[in-house]
Structures are given as structure tokens and as C-alpha cells.
Amino acid sequence: MPAQVLESGNLKVTLEPISGRRHEIIADPGGFLENSSLRSELSGVKHRVLSFQTEDDEETDEPMNFVATVYDYTNRRTLVASGSVDDPSAPYLTLLYNA
Fold first, then answer.
1. Is the dihedral of CA 69, 72, 78, 80 positive or negative?
2. pTM above 0.70, yes or no
3. Which of 8, 21, 58, 81 has the greatest number of CB atoms lying within 10 Å of its CB?
4. Mean pLDDT score of the chain, rounded to an integer?
5. Which domains does the chain have, with CATH numbers?
6. How confident is the model at residue 44 (pLDDT cuts 50, 70, 90)?
7. CA nearest 21: which of 56, 53, 68?
């Protein structure tokens, strides 16, 4: 994708794509559900990924860890999964039950 220039009055902004490896988990944040311990927690329930964030390495700017928030409509609970982007199959789970 080539650089894009946006102009408005005296303001000019140039957008340039960042080159580099795009981590698999960033390309498909919801995909980690299929290959993680969350799969058994969410099997057969109506759910939605509410948020997905990564913590990047300060030196390389590559993603290191992730935190995902998933709402389980069937059981009225929120699941927070956190773990390494290099091994998303074994996240640490926190379950929050809604009254």
C-alpha cells in the first residue's frame, strides 16, 4: 500500500504503512478462541469478543502478550483471557459472573 497524503487547510498528514511481520494473532484476534482453553468454556454458548489488546515490546514494537475480554450471553459471565501471543492456546482465565 503506498503512502497516503491527507490535507486540510494548512494541515498536511502523510500516512505510510509500517513494514514488518504481522503477528498471526493480530491478523485474526478472534481466532485464538478456536485453539485455546477458552474453546471448552465457550462450547455451545452464545458469546462475543468485546475487546482484544496486545502489549508490545518497547524495543522491537512486536506484540508480546494479549488480553481478550469475551462475554458469554448464555451464562451471563465475562471471561478475561491473558497470555503470550506466541502461545495463545494456554491463556490465564479470569471469570466474572454478572448478577
1. negative
2. no
3. 81
4. 81
5. 23-97 (3.10.450)
6. very high
7. 56
Distance, CA of 36 to CA of 34 (rounded, Å): 6
Contact 81, 68 (CB under 8 A): yes
Contacts 24+ apart (CB under 8 A), 58-64: 62/20, 62/21, 62/23, 63/23, 63/25, 63/26
CA 23, CA 61: separation in Å to the nearest integer?
A: 11
Cα separation, 19 vs 85, whole angstroms: 19
Q: Cell 491527507 identifies what position?
A: 6
